[in-house]
Design a protein that fits this description.
This protein has 175 residues and is α+β, with helices and mostly antiparallel strands. Helix content is 25%, strand content 37%. It has four helices and eight strands. Helix 1 crosses helix 2 and helix 3 crosses helix 4. 28% of the residues are buried. The mean pLDDT is 96.
C-alpha cells in the first residue's frame, strides 16, 4: 500500500469489478476518456481475476479515500521500461461525489512520487483531451508541462478534439 495525504493506493482486486464496471458505464465519468466498447460485469470481473500481478511495466492501483476506506478511482503506470526510465500514466476518480475533494491531486502526486523514488523512473507522460479543463488543471498543478498537441484525435458526441501530450521529469513534482 502506498500512502498519500488523502488517499491510499493499493492493488486493484477482483472484488473491485463492480465499482470499475459502474464507472466505465457512467457517461459523466467517461466523458473525456477512451471508453471502448461496453462490457458485461462478468467480463470485467474475469479480466481483473486473470490480470497478471503488478510489475514494473504495468502497475494498476486502486485509489482509496483514506478517511472513508472505500475505492474511489484507479491510477496506472504502464509501458514502463527500465532502459528508458519512462512510463505512461492513466488516472480517474470514478465516484462523482468525490470529485473536487483533492483525491485526484493527492493520488497523482503519490503515484508520481512512487514512480520516481521506487521505480527509478526519469519521466512520466500522459495525454489529456484539451477540453478536459479539470484534469489539465490538476496535471499542471503537480508539475506536468505541455510537450505537444495531437490534433483532432479524440471523438465525442460527433465532434473531434485535440489532446495535449504532457510530461513530468524527475525533480519537477510540485508538492
Amino acid at each position: 500500500m502506498v500512502l498519500g495525504d488523502l488517499v491510499r493506493l493499493r492493488p486493484v482486486e477482483p472484488s473491485d469489478a463492480e465499482a470499475v464496471w459502474r464507472w466505465n458505464h457512467d457517461p459523466d465519468v467517461m466523458r473525456w476518456m477512451s471508453d471502448g466498447y461496453a462490457q458485461p460485469l462478468a467480463q470485467v470481473r474475469k479480466r481483473l481475476e486473470e490480470r497478471p500481478p503488478n510489475a514494473y511495466g504495468d502497475l494498476l492501483l486502486g485509489i482509496e479515500a483514506a478517511v472513508e476506506e472505500r475505492l474511489v478511482g484507479v491510477v496506472r503506470l504502464r509501458d514502463a521500461e527500465p532502459e528508458r526510465g519512462c512510463a505512461e500514466l492513466d488516472i480517474y476518480i470514478g465516484e462523482k461525489e468525490c470529485w473536487g475533494r483533492g483525491y485526484a491531486t493527492d493520488a497523482l502526486r503519490t503515484v508520481c512520487r512512487y514512480g520516481f523514488e521506487k521505480m527509478r523512473l526519469h519521466k512520466i507522460s500522459l495525454d489529456v483531451v484539451t477540453e478536459n479543463h479539470a484534469a489539465h488543471h490538476i496535471y499542471r498543478k503537480v508539475g506536468f508541462v505541455e510537450e505537444g498537441r495531437l490534433r483532432q484525435v479524440f471523438r465525442r458526441d460527433g465532434q473531434w478534439y485535440d489532446m495535449f501530450l504532457m510530461g513530468l521529469l524527475e525533480g519537477e513534482l510540485r508538492t
